[in-house]
Structure formats: structure tokens, C-alpha cells
Design a protein that fits this description.
This protein is α+β, with helices and mostly antiparallel strands. The chain contains eight helices and 18 strands. The strands form five sheets. Strands 1, 2, 5, 6, 9, 10, 11, 17 and 18 form a nine-stranded mixed β-sheet that branches. A three-stranded antiparallel β-sheet has the order 13-12-16, with no helix packed on it. The chain is globular, with a radius of gyration of 23 Å.
């Protein structure tokens, strides 16, 4: 399909403004859109939208598998841009500890810079259940950006842009409309704790009958040895929360892990907790910036919508590559300082960043 200059100006998506696989001015890397930016998402403020979390499979800083991917982010006020920290981290004795690597952002902070933040992030896979348009991508000279490798070589890159509803300019221009977009949602520790509270509420819904579940016991996840009987325990709520949030060694089978929670249901004899990953969430943010709070006023267990774009990939994204630490030359540019480590990256932090054959429109 051919697009006029006016149409390109009206609905074309530009490469400029997206983080690319390589630094700016590095040839073909400049034409590669990064899923880090093109697929980022956050709940809207003040109005709910429908969203579906997807289960992940990532190794966390504590050395255990998580549904989310962890990374450290620096926001630089002087340039109003951010980059991913290139230090290496691990949870040691309950605290996040640096175990190696170098980072220009951390060095600036150590030297007293007050405009460089440090933030632990948790990235989830998800699907935004909304209507989108496929918008063609052009470079800064209004030339079509095409795939250079893979099965789609020669095809123009298309971005998914959310439909604006009534009087949508993309509808007016006749761009193809599809339902759903796979996104990633990065949240800090505060929103993660709020999300955990909603997960606790959702898990009280019985997946089998819709009844209400009550905690009955905590036991060894491996052999079923009883740790806490909720009907007979003398522990108060604070002590129970402390116990179940820590790993324990089973006195019977010696398995080390978190206690497994068991339920009773007021509606059936076969209680099963509902997973947040089986639910459509009506979600929004309330408030501004770091003071905002997550709200999920409604959720309901259901299959994925029948009209969801079948090309959407529901498998966990390769977040280790998507959120790879930024090279020193990028860090220096965002910090507006000289790079003391030269053009190369001695620790090869970001060797896997980007994928020339990836289709980031899904």
C-alpha cells in the first residue's frame, strides 16, 4: 500500500524517539525499534481499562524464579531520560546488594549528583485488551522502514497505536484495526506491594464454584507436613505473615521453601484458588507520579477474548535482552558527561541487546 506525504505526516510512526539496538548514528541499528519503548505500558490515570497479566519465568535477584523480571533503572533529571543500570545485583540477607559491574549513573550518585535516581523495577508481560491500529513506520526522511532480515524481510514495519475512539484520526485514515497488544508493564516496589494485595483478594475466589475461600492451613509444599493450622494456632496475624513470607526447612523431608497455603471453600468440597493470570482486570492509577496508587475495582475469571488478534504471542518475552543494561556510551550521553571507559564496553554488558529479526508490533 502506498502512502502520501500527508498521510505519512498524519499517522506515520517515526523511528526517532525510540531507543535503538545500537547508539544513534550507527547505521542499520538506527532503524530497529526497541520493544523496551515501543511496547511499554502503564494503567491510565483516573479511568479503568481492561488488562490481562501473562505469567513469566524469570530468575530474580533472590535466585528464585519469578513471574516478573527485575532490573534497576536510573532517571536523569538533567536530560529527562532514563537508562538501565549496568551493575550486577543479588539479594543477600534480605537486602539488595551490588555484587559486580560498573555504572556511570551509580558513580554520579556516589559523587553527589542529586538529579540521578535509583529505582528497582519489576517488569510483567501483559495484554492490553483494547482496539489498536497498524500504523506504518517511516524514518526521519519519510522513507518506509522495512524488515531487513527474517520471514518478513522487505515488508514495512508496522506499529500498533491505540485507537482514539470517537473522531480517531487513524480510523479516519482507514488504518487496519486489530484487538489487543502485547505489552510490558514495569512497576516499582510500592505498586508491586499494592498488586500483591489485589492478588491476595483474587486468590480468595474459588476457581471451581465461585465461592469464598478461607485460609485453613500452611504446609510443606513438598510433602504436606503441617506448619500452621489456622483453627488451632496461637499465632497472631503479624506472626503468621512473618512466618509464611520466609523460607523454612521441613522437619520431615528437609525441603526448603515457602509454606504452601491451603484453603476451605464455603461453596464446594474441592477448593481451588483463582489465579490473577486467569482474570481480566479492570485497572487504573489514581494520583500523580510516585504518589499514585493502583486500583482494580473489578476482575473476573474468563478465557482470552475470541476477537483477540491471533498473532499475539502469549509466551514470556525475552526480558533479559529487552532490559539489558545500557552501554557506557549511552549512559554518558544521557548523563551529559564524558565516557571514562572509551568507546568499547569492557564488561560487554549489552551484547545481547536487541534483535534484528524481531517483530515488535505484536
Amino acid at each position: 500500500m502506498q502512502y502520501s506525504a500527508k498521510q505519512r505526516s498524519s499517522f506515520g510512526q517515526r523511528v526517532k524517539g525510540y531507543t535503538t539496538r545500537r547508539s544513534e548514528g550507527s547505521g542499520s541499528g538506527k532503524a530497529l525499534l526497541s520493544v523496551r519503548w515501543n511496547a511499554r505500558w502503564a494503567p491510565p490515570q483516573g479511568v479503568t481499562t481492561k488488562f490481562r497479566l501473562l505469567p513469566g519465568d524469570y530468575m530474580g535477584f533472590e535466585g528464585e524464579e519469578n513471574e516478573y523480571f527485575q532490573y534497576v533503572d536510573h532517571f536523569v533529571a538533567r536530560s529527562k531520560r532514563s537508562f538501565i543500570c549496568s551493575k550486577q545485583y543479588k539479594i543477600v540477607d534480605g537486602s539488595l546488594t551490588t555484587i559486580g559491574g560498573k555504572c556511570l549513573g551509580c558513580e554520579e550518585r556516589d559523587n553527589g549528583a542529586e538529579d540521578v535516581s535509583w529505582s528497582l523495577k519489576h517488569a510483567f508481560n501483559g495484554i492490553h485488551l483494547a482496539w489498536y491500529h497498524l500504523a506504518p513506520v517511516f524514518d526521519d526522511r519519510n522513507n518506509p522502514v522495512c524488515y531487513k532480515h527474517g520471514d518478513r524481510q522487505g515488508e514495512q514495519v508496522m506499529n500498533r497505536v491505540e485507537c482514539e475512539g470517537r473522531r480517531c484520526k487513524y480510523c479516519k485514515d482507514g488504518l487496519e484495526k486489530i484487538f489487543g497488544k502485547k505489552v510490558h508493564w514495569s512497576i516499582g516496589s510500592g505498586h508491586l506491594n499494592e498488586l500483591a494485595g489485589f492478588i491476595t483478594e483474587i486468590e480468595r475466589d474459588c476457581s471451581n464454584c465461585g465461592g469464598i475461600l478461607e485460609e485453613a492451613a500452611y504446609e510443606c509444599a513438598e510433602c504436606g507436613t503441617l506448619y500452621i493450622d489456622m483453627l488451632s494456632t496461637d499465632l497472631d496475624d503479624k506472626a503468621i505473615t512473618s512466618f509464611v513470607s520466609r523460607k523454612h526447612e521441613c522437619p520431615e523431608c528437609k525441603h526448603v521453601g515457602y509454606p504452601l497455603r491451603q484453603f476451605e471453600c464455603n461453596g464446594c468440597q474441592d477448593p481451588e484458588s483463582t489465579s490473577i493470570f486467569d482474570c481480566t482486570l479492570e485497572i487504573k492509577r489514581q494520583g500523580e507520579g510516585t504518589q499514585s496508587r493502583l486500583q482494580i475495582p473489578r476482575w473476573y475469571k474468563e478465557d482470552l477474548p475470541a476477537d483477540l488478534d491471533p498473532d499475539i504471542d502469549t509466551k514470556p518475552s525475552q526480558f533479559k535482552r529487552v532490559f539489558a543494561p545500557d552501554p557506557f556510551e549511552i549512559q554518558a550521553k544521557i548523563l551529559k558527561i564524558n565516557n571514562p571507559y572509551g568507546a568499547g564496553d569492557p564488561d560487554d554488558h549489552a551484547k545481547d541487546y536487541g534483535d534484528a529479526d524481531a517483530d515488535y508490533s505484536k
